[in-house]
Design brief:
It is a single chain. α2 packs parallel to α6. The chain has two domains: 192 residues, Peroxisomal Thiolase, Chain A, domain 1 (3-Layer(aba) Sandwich); 141 residues, Thiolase/Chalcone synthase (Peroxisomal Thiolase, Chain A, domain 1). A five-stranded mixed sheet has the order 1-7-6-4-5, sandwiched between helices. The chain is built from eleven helices and 13 strands. The protein is 37% helix and 25% strand. The relative contact order is 0.19.
Length: 354
């Protein structure tokens, strides 16, 4: 959806998120039932998790029915990341001149091996970005990656005064690990994660229909590394997903959000809309409980995204924001965007329409 025609950086112009776009993998699409049948998940625990997930469809770039080598997974990651990122960017820009982009930031955590040069270089070249575009490629942040990228993009916009393009892209299927269903964390990750990309354009604008960026906050747990992330086993990535995520991460999210709001003399009652990473059905409900919110109402766009696609890791919050912004009746008041990920870490941003 195109939202911007550019802008200057003098009052009353403000740094705003001026356009959004996304792409979701469709090379392999399964219902949750088909996914369960293919992987042979028959245990009561796995069946209960699948039912509780509220996910109706799985969208993957890599085919789980194929036995990939690490090299093949890396090559498929590169192909998928390039295709989905370019699609999301083209939808986001929708005719906006690519040569006006001053900074390009690409976030991802799902490649098996580091690529040099990185995906930012490959995408910039494929789309014909100008040769002096500033590039950054944060990694290792997991599902929260889009929020630190937004903060970095904001800093670029304020420093250099040129439009900034952000992309969060995850090919979660490039980290499939063949393990028995008794490995509950691995099985849950297989059921939960899908592949996709989200893109955002940051620019100065005086249009009140574009959310202005107000502030940020971060949090990381000094002993939370065991909760979620990736381990290396047999020479490849294997997801680390502890059962304690459900109880320990939501308070971290609440602490981060409350800190952000307090800094701006706000409370949860002042927030008109929430764009929350959909880490899972239980996570959404626990975060709502911590913040004193109605989960289905406050996080309705997170629930919709979870049902349609599952968890797209760092790309998720962009899809949630696009759904929220897509309803013009939401374009008022304050918005909180928040994502939690590996570490365990949390990133949050405060925006405001008007």
């Amino acid at each position: 959806m195109t939202l911007s025609v550019g802008g200057r950086h003098a009052p009353p112009w403000q740094p705003r998120i001026t356009s959004l776009g996304h792409a979701v993998a469709d090379r392999v699409v399964m219902t949750m039932e088909e996914c369960m049948a293919y992987f042979g998940y028959t245990s009561g625990i796995i069946k209960a998790m699948a039912q509780a997930s509220k996910i109706s469809g799985k969208h993957w770039w890599c085919d789980p029915r194929k036995r990939y080598s690490v090299q093949e997974m890396t090559e498929d990651y590169e192909a998928g990341a390039l295709a989905l990122s370019c699609e999301a960017i083209q939808k986001c820009l929708d005719g906006y001149p690519i040569e006006q982009i001053g900074s390009f930031i690409y976030a991802s955590c799902t490649k098996q091996l580091d690529l040099t040069p990185g995906m930012a270089f490959k995408i910039a070249g494929a789309l014909g970005m100008r040769s002096n575009v500033r590039m950054d490629e944060p990694t290792g942040l997991g599902c929260q990656g889009a929020l630190p990228s937004l903060e970095t993009g904001y800093a670029h916009l304020m420093t250099f005064g040129e439009p900034v393009l952000l992309v969060a892209c995850e090919i979660c299927s490039a980290t499939f690990f063949d393990a028995p269903q008794g490995d509950v964390g691995n099985s849950l990750a297989t059921l939960l994660f899908s592949d996709g990309a989200s893109a955002a354009l940051l620019d100065f604008s005086d249009n009140p229909a574009f959310p202005a960026i107000i502030g940020f906050d971060r949090y990381f747990s000094k002993d939370g590394e065991r909760l979620l992330g990736y381990d290396i086993k047999d020479g490849r990535k294997k997801v680390r997903l502890s059962k304690d995520v459900r109880t320990q991460v939501p308070p971290m999210v609440a602490q981060t959000v409350q800190s952000l709001l307090k800094r701006h003399s706000l409370t949860t009652e002042d927030i008109s809309n929430w764009c929350l990473h959909n880490g899972g059905a239980a996570i959404l409900d626990e975060i709502a409980l911590e913040l004193g919110l109605d989960s289905q109402q406050a996080f309705r766009y997170s629930w919709e995204t979870l049902s349609e696609y599952g968890n797209l890791s760092s790309a998720t919050v962009g899809l949630v924001a696009e759904k929220m912004h897509g309803d013009p009746t939401n374009r008022h008041g304050y918005v909180v965007a928040c994502a939690m990920g590996a570490g365990a870490g949390v990133g949050a941003a405060l925006c405001r329409y008007g």
